[in-house]
Specification:
CATH topology: TIM Barrel
CATH class: Alpha Beta
Strand order of the largest sheet: 1-2-3-4-5-6-7-8
Helix content: 25-40%
Number of domains: 1
Radius of gyration: 18 Å
Protein backbone atom coordinates (compact mmCIF):
# COMPACT_ATOMS: atom_id res chain seq x y z
CA UNK A 1 0.00 0.00 0.00
CA UNK A 2 1.41 3.38 -0.99
CA UNK A 3 1.87 5.98 1.70
CA UNK A 4 1.86 9.71 1.31
CA UNK A 5 2.12 12.61 3.69
CA UNK A 6 3.12 11.69 7.24
CA UNK A 7 3.42 8.02 6.29
CA UNK A 8 -0.34 7.69 5.81
CA UNK A 9 -2.13 5.98 2.95
CA UNK A 10 -5.23 7.36 1.27
CA UNK A 11 -8.36 5.58 2.53
CA UNK A 12 -10.88 4.25 0.01
CA UNK A 13 -14.56 4.23 0.94
CA UNK A 14 -17.99 3.85 -0.64
CA UNK A 15 -21.04 6.13 -0.63
CA UNK A 16 -23.84 3.73 0.24
CA UNK A 17 -26.38 2.74 2.85
CA UNK A 18 -25.47 0.98 6.09
CA UNK A 19 -27.05 -2.20 4.73
CA UNK A 20 -24.30 -2.28 2.08
CA UNK A 21 -21.43 -1.84 4.54
CA UNK A 22 -20.60 -5.56 4.69
CA UNK A 23 -20.33 -5.69 0.89
CA UNK A 24 -18.12 -2.60 0.95
CA UNK A 25 -15.76 -4.14 3.47
CA UNK A 26 -15.59 -7.42 1.55
CA UNK A 27 -14.55 -5.40 -1.51
CA UNK A 28 -11.69 -3.75 0.39
CA UNK A 29 -13.27 -0.46 1.44
CA UNK A 30 -12.07 1.00 4.73
CA UNK A 31 -15.16 3.06 5.58
CA UNK A 32 -18.58 3.99 4.23
CA UNK A 33 -20.10 7.38 3.51
CA UNK A 34 -23.75 7.59 4.55
CA UNK A 35 -26.53 10.04 3.75
CA UNK A 36 -26.64 12.53 6.65
CA UNK A 37 -30.28 13.52 6.10
CA UNK A 38 -31.43 9.90 6.26
CA UNK A 39 -29.50 9.27 9.47
CA UNK A 40 -30.68 12.53 11.07
CA UNK A 41 -34.33 11.77 10.32
CA UNK A 42 -34.39 8.10 11.22
CA UNK A 43 -36.52 6.89 14.09
CA UNK A 44 -34.60 5.64 17.13
CA UNK A 45 -35.23 2.06 15.99
CA UNK A 46 -34.00 2.79 12.46
CA UNK A 47 -30.92 4.56 13.77
CA UNK A 48 -30.15 1.59 16.04
CA UNK A 49 -30.41 -0.69 12.98
CA UNK A 50 -27.94 1.53 11.13
CA UNK A 51 -25.49 1.36 14.02
CA UNK A 52 -25.85 -2.44 14.23
CA UNK A 53 -25.28 -2.88 10.50
CA UNK A 54 -22.04 -0.90 10.72
CA UNK A 55 -20.89 -2.82 13.79
CA UNK A 56 -21.59 -6.14 12.10
CA UNK A 57 -19.69 -5.03 9.00
CA UNK A 58 -16.77 -3.78 11.07
CA UNK A 59 -16.76 -0.39 9.35
CA UNK A 60 -17.38 3.14 10.55
CA UNK A 61 -19.33 5.81 8.71
CA UNK A 62 -16.25 8.03 8.61
CA UNK A 63 -17.96 10.39 6.15
CA UNK A 64 -21.49 11.53 5.34
CA UNK A 65 -23.04 13.60 2.56
CA UNK A 66 -26.38 15.25 1.70
CA UNK A 67 -26.32 17.28 4.90
CA UNK A 68 -29.33 19.57 4.38
CA UNK A 69 -32.57 18.51 2.65
CA UNK A 70 -34.36 20.70 0.14
CA UNK A 71 -37.15 21.62 2.54
CA UNK A 72 -34.66 24.09 4.06
CA UNK A 73 -34.28 26.79 1.42
CA UNK A 74 -31.12 28.39 2.73
CA UNK A 75 -31.11 31.59 0.69
CA UNK A 76 -34.51 32.66 2.01
CA UNK A 77 -34.31 31.04 5.44
CA UNK A 78 -34.83 33.72 8.09
CA UNK A 79 -35.24 31.61 11.21
CA UNK A 80 -32.48 29.05 11.82
CA UNK A 81 -34.09 27.39 14.86
CA UNK A 82 -35.55 24.36 13.04
CA UNK A 83 -32.37 23.93 11.01
CA UNK A 84 -30.30 24.05 14.19
CA UNK A 85 -32.44 21.39 15.90
CA UNK A 86 -32.13 19.15 12.86
CA UNK A 87 -28.36 19.62 12.71
CA UNK A 88 -27.81 18.99 16.40
CA UNK A 89 -29.61 15.65 16.29
CA UNK A 90 -27.88 14.65 13.08
CA UNK A 91 -24.40 15.63 14.23
CA UNK A 92 -24.81 13.82 17.54
CA UNK A 93 -25.69 10.66 15.63
CA UNK A 94 -22.91 11.18 13.09
CA UNK A 95 -20.33 11.63 15.83
CA UNK A 96 -21.52 8.47 17.57
CA UNK A 97 -21.07 6.51 14.31
CA UNK A 98 -17.47 7.66 13.98
CA UNK A 99 -18.04 10.32 11.33
CA UNK A 100 -15.16 12.74 10.86
CA UNK A 101 -16.23 14.70 7.79
CA UNK A 102 -19.67 15.71 6.46
CA UNK A 103 -19.99 16.99 2.91
CA UNK A 104 -22.01 20.17 2.36
CA UNK A 105 -23.18 20.32 -1.22
CA UNK A 106 -26.97 20.02 -0.89
CA UNK A 107 -27.88 21.80 -4.10
CA UNK A 108 -31.60 21.48 -3.41
CA UNK A 109 -31.17 23.57 -0.28
CA UNK A 110 -28.48 26.04 -1.31
CA UNK A 111 -29.54 26.76 -4.90
CA UNK A 112 -29.94 30.50 -5.50
CA UNK A 113 -33.20 31.98 -6.83
CA UNK A 114 -33.26 33.18 -10.45
CA UNK A 115 -31.61 36.55 -10.90
CA UNK A 116 -29.51 36.39 -7.72
CA UNK A 117 -25.83 36.99 -8.37
CA UNK A 118 -23.49 34.38 -6.96
CA UNK A 119 -21.58 36.75 -4.66
CA UNK A 120 -24.87 38.14 -3.30
CA UNK A 121 -26.03 34.60 -2.65
CA UNK A 122 -22.81 33.83 -0.83
CA UNK A 123 -23.60 36.56 1.69
CA UNK A 124 -26.68 34.55 2.69
CA UNK A 125 -24.94 31.17 2.62
CA UNK A 126 -21.82 32.08 4.59
CA UNK A 127 -23.63 32.39 7.96
CA UNK A 128 -25.27 29.01 7.35
CA UNK A 129 -21.91 27.33 6.76
CA UNK A 130 -20.56 29.00 9.90
CA UNK A 131 -23.53 27.69 11.90
CA UNK A 132 -23.12 24.18 10.51
CA UNK A 133 -19.37 24.23 11.07
CA UNK A 134 -19.79 25.30 14.67
CA UNK A 135 -22.29 22.56 15.50
CA UNK A 136 -20.21 19.95 13.69
CA UNK A 137 -17.06 20.93 15.60
CA UNK A 138 -18.79 20.12 18.88
CA UNK A 139 -18.89 16.49 17.73
CA UNK A 140 -15.41 16.33 16.25
CA UNK A 141 -16.71 16.64 12.69
CA UNK A 142 -15.30 18.78 9.86
CA UNK A 143 -17.59 20.23 7.19
CA UNK A 144 -16.36 19.95 3.60
CA UNK A 145 -17.64 22.53 1.08
CA UNK A 146 -18.62 20.65 -2.07
CA UNK A 147 -18.57 22.47 -5.41
CA UNK A 148 -21.16 20.95 -7.76
CA UNK A 149 -21.32 20.96 -11.54
CA UNK A 150 -23.21 23.68 -13.41
CA UNK A 151 -26.06 21.33 -14.24
CA UNK A 152 -26.84 20.68 -10.56
CA UNK A 153 -26.12 23.93 -8.75
CA UNK A 154 -25.69 27.65 -9.25
CA UNK A 155 -24.13 28.63 -5.90
CA UNK A 156 -20.68 27.02 -5.73
CA UNK A 157 -19.54 25.26 -8.89
CA UNK A 158 -15.78 25.02 -9.28
CA UNK A 159 -13.02 23.99 -6.91
CA UNK A 160 -11.54 27.49 -7.11
CA UNK A 161 -14.91 28.95 -6.10
CA UNK A 162 -15.17 26.44 -3.29
CA UNK A 163 -11.77 27.45 -1.95
CA UNK A 164 -12.66 31.14 -2.13
CA UNK A 165 -16.00 30.54 -0.42
CA UNK A 166 -14.38 28.41 2.31
CA UNK A 167 -11.92 31.19 3.07
CA UNK A 168 -14.74 33.73 3.28
CA UNK A 169 -16.53 31.48 5.77
CA UNK A 170 -13.37 31.67 7.85
CA UNK A 171 -14.22 28.79 10.17
CA UNK A 172 -11.57 26.22 11.15
CA UNK A 173 -14.27 23.55 11.05
CA UNK A 174 -15.17 24.26 7.40
CA UNK A 175 -12.77 22.99 4.75
CA UNK A 176 -12.98 21.79 1.13
CA UNK A 177 -13.88 18.74 -0.97
CA UNK A 178 -12.68 17.87 -4.48
CA UNK A 179 -15.09 15.74 -6.49
CA UNK A 180 -13.54 14.37 -9.68
CA UNK A 181 -16.98 13.77 -11.23
CA UNK A 182 -18.08 17.39 -10.90
CA UNK A 183 -14.68 18.74 -11.91
CA UNK A 184 -14.72 16.51 -14.98
CA UNK A 185 -18.20 17.59 -16.07
CA UNK A 186 -17.22 21.24 -15.64
CA UNK A 187 -14.03 20.76 -17.65
CA UNK A 188 -11.91 22.00 -14.75
CA UNK A 189 -8.17 21.53 -14.66
CA UNK A 190 -7.29 18.98 -11.98
CA UNK A 191 -4.31 21.19 -11.27
CA UNK A 192 -6.80 23.48 -9.52
CA UNK A 193 -6.43 21.08 -6.59
CA UNK A 194 -2.93 22.41 -5.93
CA UNK A 195 -3.89 25.79 -4.37
CA UNK A 196 -6.15 24.00 -1.89
CA UNK A 197 -3.23 22.27 -0.18
CA UNK A 198 -4.05 21.23 3.39
CA UNK A 199 -7.51 22.80 3.12
CA UNK A 200 -8.56 19.80 1.04
CA UNK A 201 -10.10 17.40 3.56
CA UNK A 202 -12.15 14.96 1.49
CA UNK A 203 -12.54 13.65 -2.06
CA UNK A 204 -15.18 11.94 -4.20
CA UNK A 205 -14.60 10.04 -7.40
CA UNK A 206 -16.62 8.67 -10.32
CA UNK A 207 -16.08 8.39 -14.04
CA UNK A 208 -17.61 11.64 -15.35
CA UNK A 209 -19.29 9.93 -18.29
CA UNK A 210 -22.30 8.28 -16.69
CA UNK A 211 -21.11 8.73 -13.09
CA UNK A 212 -19.92 5.12 -12.94
CA UNK A 213 -17.28 3.21 -10.97
CA UNK A 214 -13.77 3.93 -12.23
CA UNK A 215 -12.44 0.71 -13.76
CA UNK A 216 -9.37 -0.28 -15.79
CA UNK A 217 -9.85 0.30 -19.48
CA UNK A 218 -12.98 2.44 -19.10
CA UNK A 219 -11.47 5.11 -21.33
CA UNK A 220 -11.04 7.91 -18.78
CA UNK A 221 -7.66 9.33 -17.75
CA UNK A 222 -7.65 9.49 -13.96
CA UNK A 223 -3.91 10.12 -13.69
CA UNK A 224 -4.05 13.96 -13.55
CA UNK A 225 -6.47 13.89 -10.61
CA UNK A 226 -4.25 11.54 -8.62
CA UNK A 227 -1.10 13.40 -9.64
CA UNK A 228 -2.52 16.61 -8.18
CA UNK A 229 -3.50 14.85 -4.95
CA UNK A 230 -0.03 13.34 -4.72
CA UNK A 231 1.60 16.72 -5.24
CA UNK A 232 -0.18 18.27 -2.25
CA UNK A 233 0.50 15.18 -0.15
CA UNK A 234 -3.16 14.35 0.25
CA UNK A 235 -3.60 11.32 2.52
CA UNK A 236 -7.27 11.67 3.44
CA UNK A 237 -10.38 9.82 2.32
CA UNK A 238 -11.55 9.10 -1.22
CA UNK A 239 -15.19 8.01 -1.52
CA UNK A 240 -16.55 6.23 -4.56
CA UNK A 241 -19.80 8.05 -5.34
CA UNK A 242 -21.01 6.32 -8.45
CA UNK A 243 -23.31 3.82 -10.04
CA UNK A 244 -22.13 0.25 -10.45
CA UNK A 245 -21.68 -0.50 -14.17
CA UNK A 246 -21.72 -4.28 -13.99
CA UNK A 247 -22.93 -5.80 -10.76
CA UNK A 248 -21.39 -6.36 -7.31
CA UNK A 249 -18.27 -7.97 -8.74
CA UNK A 250 -17.17 -4.56 -10.06
CA UNK A 251 -16.63 -3.01 -6.63
CA UNK A 252 -13.51 -5.02 -5.67
CA UNK A 253 -12.02 -4.28 -9.10
CA UNK A 254 -12.78 -0.57 -8.63
CA UNK A 255 -11.18 -0.46 -5.18
CA UNK A 256 -8.11 -2.31 -6.43
CA UNK A 257 -7.83 0.04 -9.41
CA UNK A 258 -8.06 3.16 -7.22
CA UNK A 259 -5.36 1.82 -4.91
CA UNK A 260 -3.13 1.25 -7.93
CA UNK A 261 -3.79 4.77 -9.20
CA UNK A 262 -3.02 6.32 -5.84
Amino acid sequence: MKTWKGGKAMKIGLCCGAEEAAQARAAGCEYVELNFTKVARQSEEEYAQTARALDQAGLRAEAMNCIIPADFQLYSLGDYSALERYLRQGMARAGALGTQVVVFGSSGARRLPPGVEKKDGWEKLIPVYRLVGGIAAQHGVTIAVEPLNYGEDNAINTLREGLEFMRLVGSPGVRLLADMYHMGLNGEDYGDILPAGEDLRHCHIARPEGRLFPLPGDGYDYAPFFAALREIGYAGRLSIEAGNPGGPECLPACVEYLRALS
